[in-house]
TrEMBL record:
Species of the source: Mustela putorius furo
Stored PROSITE patterns: RWD (PS50908)
Pfam families assigned: DFRP_C (PF16543), RWD (PF05773)
Family matches, as SUPFAM superfamilies: UBC-like
Entry superkingdom: Eukaryota
Presence of the UniProt keyword Phosphoprotein in the record: no
Keywords associated with the record: Coiled coil
Record's protein name: RWD domain containing 1
Amino acid sequence: TSEAGENDETVQTTLKFTYSEKYPDEAPLYEIFSQENLEDSDVSEILKLLALQAEENLGMVMIFTLVTAVQEKLNEIVDQIKTRREEEKKQKEKEAEEAEKQLFHGTPVTIENFLSWKAKFDAELLEIKKKRMKEEEQAGKNKLSGKQLFETDHNLDTSDIQFLEDAGNNVEVDESLFQEMDDLELEDDEDDPDYNPADPESDLT
C-alpha cells in the first residue's frame, strides 16, 4: 500500500510470487493478485518494473528488492493522482471551450459548401412554390361562379324575398331627409313652352 496522498487517498496492490526450482538464478513467477485505485496503465508499469528488477537481480535473493521497488512505484502513482486530476480538469475545460467556439464560429464558408447549400436552398424554394401554385390552382377549380352558385343552390333564387319576409316587409324611411323639399326651386318642365316630351333635347337652348 502506498503512503497517503494529498487527500488521504491510497493505491494498493497484492503481489503473488512463486519460486522456481532454480531461484534465485532464475526469476520467480509473479503476478498482481489484486489492486485498488490503480489504472490499467499503472498495472502495466508495475509489471514492467518487476521484469526489469528481476533481470537485474538474478543470482541474488530478490523478493524484498522487488516488493520495495513496487512500493516506491505506488508512492509515485499516488503523488501523480493530483497531477492527473488537474490535467483531466484542464482537458475537459479545453474541450468545453473548443465546443463553445465551434458553436459561435460554425462551419467556415467556402465556395464549395456555399454552392452546395444554395443548390439545396433553391430546390427547397422551388418545391414550396410548386406546392403553393398547386394549392392555388386547386382552390381556383373549387371556386364556383355566380351562375354556378345559382344553378347548384336553388335557395338563392328566393334569398332576397326571404330576407324581406324576415324583416317583416318594413322599410324605414328617414322623413327628415325630405323636410326641405318644399323649399327647393324646381322647374316644372310642363310649364316650359318649348318642352316637348317626345324630344328630350327640346328644352336645351
